[in-house]
Amino acid sequence: MTSEFKEFAMKGSVMDLAIGVVIGGAFQKIVDSLVNDIIMPIVGLATGGVDFSNRFLALQGGPFTTLEEAKKAGVATLNYGLFINQILTFLIVAFTLFMVIKGVNRMRRNTPPAKV
Predict the structure, then answer these.
(1) pLDDT digits (tens, 9 = 90+) for 79-110
(2) One matching Pfam family, short form (predicted)?
(3) Are residues 116 and 83 in contact, defined by beta-carbon separation less than 8 angstroms?
(4) What are the residue ranges spanned by the domains of the chain?
C-alpha cells in the first residue's frame, strides 16, 4: 500500500496539481490586493467616496456606522459591499485564467509536430 501511494503521489499530474494549488493560493492574494487596494478605491472615488468594503445592511438593531460596530453588537448583516469585492475578484481571476489558457492554446497550435 505504501509503494502504491508513493507511485500515485509521484505521478506528474498529481505533482502538477499540487504546484498549481500553491501558485493559485499565492495568485489569489495578489488578486485580493489588486481588488481591495487598487480597484475598489478608484471605484469608490468614482462613486463619490463610497467604501464598498464597509457597505452593509443591518438586519436588526439601531443604526451602525461601520460593519465592525454591527459585528461587535452581534447584529446580523447583509454585507453586499464585500460581495461586490468578491465578484470583482472572481472576474479578474477568470479573465486572467482565460488569457493564460488562450496563450497556452496558441503556443500548442504553433508548435510543429515532432518528427518520428
Answers:
(1) 998 898 888 888 888 888 888 889 888 888 77
(2) MscL
(3) no
(4) 13-107
